[in-house]
Every structure is written in C-alpha cells, then in structure tokens.
What we know:
Strand order of the largest sheet: 11-12-5-15-16-17
Oligomer: single chain
Low-confidence stretches: 88-103, 258-272
Largest sheet: 6 strands, mixed
Strand content: 15-25%
Structural class: alpha+beta
Radius of gyration: 41 Å
Number of helices: 16
Distance between the termini: 99 Å
Shape: elongated
Amino acid sequence: MKKTLQIQIGGRHFHMDEDGYNKLSHYLESLKSHFAKEGESGKEIIEDIEQRIAELLEKKITPSKEAASLDDVNEIIATLGKVEDFIYDEPSSGRHDEGYSDRRDYRRFFRDDENGYIGGVCSGLGEFFDIDPLWIRLAFIALVFLKGLGAIVYIILWIVVPRARSTAEKLQMKGMPVNLTTIKESVNAEYDKVRSSLDGLQNSSAADRTRTAFENIMRAVGLVMVAIIKFIIGTIGVVFLIIGSVFLAVLIMVLLGVSNVFGHMPFWNGVDLPGLSHLFGTPGHYEIAVICLVILVLVPIVVLIYWGIKILFNIKTKHPVLRAFTLTGWILALILFITLIFANSANYAVGATGSKTSAVGTGKSPLHIDVIDNIEDKRITEYRVFDYRFKYSKWDESLYDKVALTIEPSDDKEMHLTVNKQVKNVGIKDSDRYIDRIEYFWNQQDSVVYLNKYFSTDGDDFWMFSEVNVRLRIPEGQEIVISPRICDILESYQYDQYCYDRSLVDQKVVMSPEGNLVPVK
C-alpha cells in the first residue's frame, strides 16, 4: 500500500503516490535553482514547464487510474529532459534541426491570436501548414463572395479550434518538441521581441511609425469585430439555453400533464398515451417504444442546454467518455425504435364498435330504473394501465369496468335501450370476436328495469381498452323513477343535471318536449 498525496501544479489538482511526488518535487526544485539567474523570464519558464507537466499528467489519469505514479513522473522527465542534460546541451543553433525535419510528430492546430487580426485562425493555419498566412487570408476573403462561405467557415473554426495560450501550445503550433530547451528559447524570444519592439519604437522613423499606427488601427478594427462576434456567440448560447429549457418544460408537461405540474388545475391531463397503443401488438413493445422516444427527444434537449451553458460561460471542459456514451445511447434508442415500428407494422390495429338495441316494456307507470352492483360477490383486484383502471376478478379471471349511461329522448313512442360496445387495438378480421367477448346484462321485472353496473371481458383483453355505453331512450310523457344508484353510472353532464342534491332521484319524473327529465307536477 502506497501513500497518496493531493498536489496542485499548473493550476490543476492531481493525486500522486509519495514516490512520484518526491521525484517531481526534486525535479522542480532543480529547475528553479537553474533558472533563478534568468530573473523574470526564469519565473515564466518555470510556470510554462509546470503547465506542460500538468498537461502530461492529465494524459496519465484515466477512470481506472486516479493517481499518478513514479513511472509516470519518470516518463514526463524523460519527455522534457533532465536539468543535467540541459546544462551541457550545445547552443540552440541547429539543435532543433532533427525536430524540424518531421514537424508532423509535434505540430497541432491552434489559433494564433498574437499574430492574427481577428481570431488568429489564418495565422494558426499558416503555422500548421508552414505557409504565409497572407495567402490563407486572401482565400477566406475570396470565399466570402461565395454566398458567405468564407465567413461561416472562419466562425466555425474560431469556435471549434482552441487558442494557443501556453508556451507549450505555441511550440506545438509551430511543430517544435516541448522540452526544457524549447520552452526556455520560446520565453526568451518573447522577451527579446518585447525589448526589440520598445527599442524599435524609440528609434523608428516616421514611415515606420506610420506603418505601426496603421497596424494598430487594423488591430483595433479586429478587436471591434472580435467583440461583435463574441456578442453573437453569447447570443447563440442564450438562445440555445432558452430553447432547450422551453423544450424540456414542454416534454415534462407532455409526460406528466399540466395538472400534475401546476397543482389542482385539471384543464389538461397530459398526452393520451393509449391513443398511440394501436401501433403496437403488445404492451411490452409499446412501453419500450415510449422509452426510446423519450430518449430520442430528451438527449437533443439536454445537449442544447449543455452547449448553451458552455458557450455562455466559456466552459472549456471536455468529457469524451460521456459524449461517446450519450451518442451511443441515442443511436441505440433510434435503432430500437425504428425496429419496433417495422416489426409491429403488420400488427397495425383499429378500433371497432358494435351495438344492440332492445325494446323496454312500459306497461305499468311509472317505470323504475335501478342499478345492480354485479361484482359484490367476486374477489376483485384493481389495476391501472395508463389512465385506465380495471377491476380483475380472480374468481372468473375476467376484467370488469363501469358502464356509462346516458338518458335521451326517444324518436318514437317506445322506450329503447341500446348497448354500445367499443374495443381498441384489434385487427379488422378479429374485431367481431373481441366485441362478442364483452359481456353486459340487463333485465326487466314487471315495472323495474335493472342495469348491471359493470361489464366484463376476458382477463387477457386489457390491451383492448374496452368500453360500454348504455343509451336509455324514453318517449315524451313517459313517467319514470330514477334510483339513486343510477348516479354511479350517469355521464358527468347528466349527473350534474339529475343527481345534484338528489333533486330528481326517488321521485316521479317525465321526459319533457325539450328532451330533459323534469318532475311530475
């Protein structure tokens, strides 16, 4: 067991075992001692070396390896070079010829904003391809006249390509190896450049000063354009964030329903999910398809919000594993969803309706209408599928659901009772068979009509979402007496009309010419 320490180097935190920490500390102390005589440039050299060490350490850390080891430190020192080797190196003239012979081993594409006018894209491309940036700038200007293609490509590269900030990145941009020697030479070159600029400014001629003033004007124009483009990019981030948040809120309301989000406001109860069930032959396929559909919609929304936050707050973090996992999950959900659609296309179902009308004897007046609770003696368990509730009886392995009763005026002088049966998700060839499996009974004894409160169907038919509507049509002038139990199955609008405060139950009522039940005067 090795002791692990937490260290900070180059502004980043790492875990490292004690042996590696001791070796790295000794290495940095020797570097500080060597470059102390360089003064301010020496401090900057040490800072750049620490930044490079942090970059190399990040590559050693993986999800399965959270702490750097002594071997990792030895590899980093071998890459940068030892202080002893650096002291006895030959002068820098010609020492990088080998490195320049194959720049592909070291070079990376960065934006060079120090030598650029706007975003440093052209200067970075010039360093990467080892050509004069002027030709690249002319190429972009020419492409601008091709329906603005040059500006679009430039903005995309500006957003995607990182800027060369550290000395190590500037060396990689130029195709140079990043070690002690090149870091020192780069920092000293920067200091020499600054001193030369100050000396040149003091000793420059009027023509040179004019040229410098023109370059400053061009740079100022470039900075203004940078500010405008940054504002546009920030606006894009805000738009991404707003659109993603709105879409996410809509998705939540679609899945849960507005009433579930805003409390007791039942003006909408979400998407009627059973309305999509006819596309699938089994409930299992339907549930998997809904999950896939949610993933297909949710992932782009989350990515939109993520990029909005990242652009708006200039977040540079990268999560390649998370991106790969998210993209893979989205593609798998898409493939599975398409597969389910094609696999169930042959099972596309329809809804079917069947009705039967029977005459009701009016004989003695008034006629009493009553309801029988036909599941009192059955062992009932209640289940819920989507927004549908079913009562399942283990006694006869059947599903029971409540009927819906409507009382209407008759078209003739007779009383009629119509039982309307409806099923969903059945094939055209099987529709009659499934309608016949719905059982509903009523009977008349003398002057009393008894209606069953529940209809029944086979226990395996829950995916059919069966319904039974009963229409009792009463001729004008016919006196009837409604039992209070009728209120349990009346449609909601008639419940409010006939059962509110029990105003029309347990008393004689008659069908009026307007088609409503009214008390007998």
